[in-house]
Design goal:
It is a single chain. This protein is α+β, with helices and mostly antiparallel strands. It has one domain. Helices cover 23% and strands 27% of the residues. Strands 1, 2, 3, 4, 5, 6, 7, 8 and 9 form a nine-stranded mixed sheet that branches. Strand 7 and strand 8 form a beta hairpin. The protein is globular.
Length: 202
């Protein structure tokens, strides 16, 4: 999370919660890696376990309260600008999706760090609409789109996840709203009280 969004003593919560994140991948969508650290995620239906690279896991449980370790994700109702830009700019080496997280969880205002997580859904890009069927530029885009969507479906099948298509109405918003694992804004407000602003000096 950005430094300004952290709080000094975030609470610990138990249970399964939903988060959204970005992965780096290859042209065949055969692997998932963290976009910031390059750490590899499981792509065969199993859970990815967080590992602290700064300290031995015997030093503290992952994620540590005074550390930055853990599997990162943003809250499902708080899409950051970088994720929204990715959804509207198709990139064959990027995958955006939702994770189900559990175990030890450090909760923050914009997202969380979890001990265990696995992908439960992948989001298809919002692809540009064709201007003319005969336009060769659109044919190239359509061919690229078909290849990406086919590989995304294969990736979802390997992970035991589903695909949410942003090109067919507001399926993304409805999917989040219907999922009980997504933390609502009012729930976050109860779990994480906002810091009081110190009075300004004259």
């Amino acid at each position: 999370m950005p430094e300004g969004n952290r709080i000094s003593n975030p609470p610990l919560i138990a249970g399964t919660i939903l988060g959204v994140r970005i992965w780096r991948t290859d042209m065949g969508l055969c692997s998932l890696r963290s976009s910031s650290t390059g750490a590899r995620w499981q792509t065969h239906g199993g859970a990815t376990a967080a590992v602290c690279v700064r300290h031995d896991n015997r030093y503290h449980r992952v994620p540590g309260k005074e550390c930055t370790c853990g599997l990162y994700a943003h809250h499902a109702y708080r899409f950051p600008p970088q994720i929204l830009r990715r959804l509207h700019r198709p990139d064959p080496r990027t995958v955006v999706g939702f994770v189900e997280a559990w175990g030890r969880i450090e909760l923050h205002l914009e997202g969380f760090r979890a001990e265990f997580a696995r992908p439960v859904a992948f989001i298809n890009f919002t692809w540009p609409k064709p201007k003319e069927d005969e336009d060769p530029r659109w044919y190239g885009t359509r061919k690229r789109r078909c290849a990406y969507e086919y590989r995304l479906i294969e990736l979802a099948e390997r992970c035991g996840a589903e695909v949410i298509d942003c090109n067919k109405g507001d399926k993304l918003g409805a999917w989040i709203h219907d999922d009980p694992r997504a933390l609502r804004r009012e729930t976050l407000a109860r779990l994480i009280p906002r810091r009081r602003r110190s009075p300004r000096r004259s």
